[in-house]
Amino acid sequence: MLQAINSEGKTCLIALRSKAEITKLKDTESFYCPICYEPVLIRAGAKQVAHFAHKRDSRCFSSMTGEGPYHQQGKLDLFQWLTNQGYQAKLETYFKDIKQRADLSFSINQKQYVIEFQCANISPDILIKRTLGFQSIKVNPLWILGGNQITRFSGQGLRLNMMAQACLNQYPDDHSAWLTYYCPVAKQFAHYSAIALIGDHKSYGHLTFLELRNSSLLELLGKSKPPFIPSEWLYLKRSFRTSPRSPRLSKSEKAFHKWLYQHSLHPSLLSSWVGLPVQGQWKMRVPIWHWQTILCYGFLNGQQTFYYPQLKQFIAPYVKTIPQQPLVFQDIDPIKCYLNYFLKVKQIVKITKDFYRVLYPIQTYQTLPIALKKDQYLLKKLDL
Ligand SMILES: [Zn+2]
Fold first, then answer.
1. Using an 8 Å Cβ cutoff, are 5 and 34 in contact?
2. Where are the chain's structural domains?
């Protein structure tokens, strides 16, 4: 931890003291953990941020978090970053009621926020529990992941594990999802916005790098929607169509391939209607390609008309029942968002409230080049 209290109860942020001061403090002062009040030791090496540590046999929960130098440096950077912007930020705030300590806390317009700088991969359940804990006392948590957690698989594509997915935030105006990483070595944020999950872990979004000293909190929390890049999306669609089948498929991927086989379908020749970006994909259990294929060929092609509740019931097995993103509002309907694309170009028309007519069946294509051309054409037609 970065802070401890001295025998007079005053807080000391040791990392901001000079080397000479730290040496003097070591000899003259005693420090205590602000949570358990056990005596703590000053640790100040050449390669790490000066900090306090509990004695080895301590049973204080804050001694068990195992914060490494990367985490401590990041926490300190973010603290100074907030302070420089005029926020009354506090480090390592302990919330007694919920027995949780946040890395940073501050207020905006009487709304209280905490920042958790998460560098280690922890179970999504623990993260969700911590989020709900803060929310239960009306504190808004913002998770900033360590830059060491970024895994890119293409220019604008990141692999998001379940922990990262549990950290998704949502812009209030356009409901798109975002996530922020901070790297204390590079001193920059990687801000990832307009995120669309396309697989269990694969996602596509807009990744921008912002220098710490040139960026503000409001910029991160800001509302501007970044542009959708059709060429990037087409690249992902192309790799869905052309990638050889992996020998190590997950259970749900196996089920999908079996389904395709039983319906005499091949990914390379599926309609361009399969694989369109939708808001709220995080609510779905399976990748975009998977549920959209089943919805197109398993439902729409068998109906001339349908009621929306029928469609919802059909797709229900592919929708998560328990929300795993506590920071996103739950009022987005990815199925409706998908249906709206069909309405937009009159492939399907609305007859009365919740009652629809399918005007054209969903096709398959003869060859891969035709499919790729159609993918491009449909994105244009939908104005994406
Ligand atoms: Zn303690």
1. yes
2. 65-226, 231-381
Span from the CA of 310 to the centroid of ligand 1 (angstroms): 56
End-to-end CA distance of the chain: 47
Q: Report pLDDT digits (tens) over 101-119.
A: 999 999 988 899 999 999 9
Phi, psi of 204 (to 5 degrees): -125, 140
| Contact present, 314 and 372 (Cβ < 8 Å) | no
Instruction: Say whether pLDDT at 91 is over 70.
Output: yes
Q: What is the percent of the chain with per-residue pLDDT over 90, rounded to a whole number?
A: 61
CA distance 321 to 213: 42
Structure-block tokens of residue 10: 């005053």
Cα(273) to centroid(ligand 1), Å: 56
Cα 4 to averaged position of ligand 1 atoms, centre (Å): 9
**CA of residue 205 to ligand 1 center, whole Å:** 40
- CA–centroid distance, 216 to ligand 1, in Å, is 32
- Give 287 Cα–ligand 1 centroid separation in angstroms: 44
Would you identify the CATH topology of the domain 65-226? Trna Endonuclease; Chain: A, domain 1 (3.40.1350)
Ligand 1 centroid, distance to 40 Cα (angstroms): 8
Burial 238-250, CB ≥16 within 10 A → b, else e: bebbeeeeeeeee
How many CA atoms within 13 Å lie on the side-chain side of 162?
10
What distance in angstroms lies between residue 148's CA and the mean position of ligand 1's atoms? Answer: 27
- Asked if pLDDT for residue 65 goes beyond 70, the answer is no
Alpha-carbon distance 289 to 336, whole Å? Answer: 16
Q: Which of 38, 69, 37, 31 is nearest to 52 (CA)?
A: 31
Could you give phi then psi for residue 349, rounded to 5 degrees? Answer: -120, 150
* Ligand 1: centre distance to CA 96 (Å): 13
Residue 246 Cα to ligand 1 midpoint, Å, equals: 48
Which of 56-70, 91-105, 169-183 tops mean pLDDT? 91-105
130-145 confidence digits (pLDDT tens): 999 999 999 999 999 9
What sections of 216-333 are H helices per DSSP? 217-221, 230-242, 251-262, 288-293, 308-315
Q: How far is the CA of 139 from the centre of ligand 1 (A)?
A: 23
